[in-house]
């Protein structure tokens, strides 16, 4: 049995050489987002009142109050929220000043199944 191996330099590769610099920048930006996500989670875990306000606002479809609750966590990232009567989704975006707004962190948290 014969096997044919194509030398990597003989293939017509349409992609540029691998450069991990951009990927490294994305990882660094995402690490910051992850830390900001932890701020939201930790603040909600530490405050039953904050959790209650968030859940009640979501159930009333009060987007302004949901935003106020999230901003009160002190998270430095802009957090987009969407919600249902039984869950909330937070989307954090990398700062425009960081690596070209490369990354997002989305967290979906539930408190019921309606």
Care to describe what's here?
There is one protein chain. This protein is α+β, with helices and mostly antiparallel strands and 114 residues long. It has one domain. The protein is 42% helix and 18% strand. It is built from 3 helices and 3 strands. The chain has helices at residues 21-46, 48-60, 63-71, and strands at residues 79-84, 87-93, 104-110. It has a 3-stranded antiparallel sheet with strand order 1-2-3, covered by helices on one side. It is elongated and about 60 Å long. The N and C termini lie far apart (61 Å). The mean pLDDT is 86. InterPro entries: YuzC.
Q: What keyword list fits this structure?
A:
114 residues; alpha+beta; YuzC
| Helix and strand element order | HHHEEE
Percent helix range: 40-55%
Q: Average pLDDT, to the nearest integer?
A: 86
Shape: elongated
Beta strand count: 3
Spans of at least 5 consecutive residues with low confidence? none
| SS summary, helix count | 3
Oligomer: single chain
Strand order, largest beta sheet: 1-2-3
Can you summarize the main beta sheet?
3 strands, antiparallel
Measured between the Cα atoms of the first and last residue, the distance is 61 Å
Give the strand content: 15-25%
What class would the helix/strand composition place it in? alpha+beta
How large, in whole angstroms, is the Cα Rg?
Answer: 21 Å
How many domains is the backbone divided into? 1
Pfam family, one: YuzC
InterPro entries: YuzC
């Amino acid at each position: 049995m014969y096997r044919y191996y194509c030398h990597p330099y003989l293939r017509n590769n349409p992609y540029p050489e691998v450069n991990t610099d951009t990927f490294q920048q994305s990882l660094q930006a995402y690490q910051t987002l992850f830390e900001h996500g932890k701020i939201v989670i930790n603040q909600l875990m530490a405050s039953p009142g904050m959790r209650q306000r968030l859940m009640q606002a979501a159930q009333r479809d009060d987007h302004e109050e949901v935003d106020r609750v999230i901003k009160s966590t002190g998270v430095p990232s802009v957090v987009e929220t969407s919600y249902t009567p039984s869950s909330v989704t937070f989307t954090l975006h990398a700062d425009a000043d960081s690596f070209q707004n490369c990354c997002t962190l989305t967290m979906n948290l539930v408190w019921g199944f309606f």
